[in-house]
Structures are given as C-alpha cells and as structure tokens.
Amino acid sequence: METKDNLQLLIETAARKHHLGDIPGALDEYNRAIEREPDDPFLYGSRGFFYLAARQRAAAKVDFARALELLQPLLQTEEAQVPPRHPFSRVRVSHRMLKNALANLR
C-alpha cells in the first residue's frame, strides 16, 4: 500500500526531474502518483502546472479541469487543509489558482 510520504516523494522527484530537464522522467513520476491516487485534485493541479511549464497547453487544460472537478466537494469545508508540505496550502487558494490558470489557457 502506498503511503502519503511515498506519494509526496513521487511529487518531489517529479519536480526535481523537471528542474533538471528530464521532462519524460518528470511526467512518468506525476503519472505514477496519479495512478496511486486518481481522485487527488492536487496531483492533477501539479501535473497541470508541469504541462504548462512544458508548453503542453492542451494537456494542462485537461488536468486543470479535472483538478477543479475534484476540488469542488472539498470547497464545502471552509477550513479544508492539505498536507503541510504540499505545493498548495489551502483548498480555496488552489481552486482560485486553477481557475485562473484554466481561464488563461482559453
């Protein structure tokens, strides 16, 4: 069973690979993370921003839309929190960031 720490490691590894220019390797890590947690909106958001940085606008739009869809139920909780080391600190901030990113891609 995959733990949240291992999932966080996949995300950090993806970001590190992206920073080092290993685009296929970074994408593989994001995909592995999403395979393990397919209903995690933050993973789709993270991969969407990766796609945006890699100039893959169509893929970014798909991931941002999916992240927003998955975030919707979490917006019902005013103080919904994500893990403290996660790139996003709050659900509402994430929602606003993703909506803005998606709007800028249209």
Automatic annotation (TrEMBL):
Instruction: Return the InterPro entries for the record.
Output: TPR-like_helical_dom_sf
Source domain of life is Bacteria
Please state what the protein is called.
TPR repeat-containing protein
Organism, as annotated: Gloeobacter kilaueensis (strain ATCC BAA-2537 / CCAP 1431/1 / ULC 316 / JS1)
Organism lineage reads as: Bacteria, Bacillati, Cyanobacteriota, Cyanophyceae, Gloeobacterales
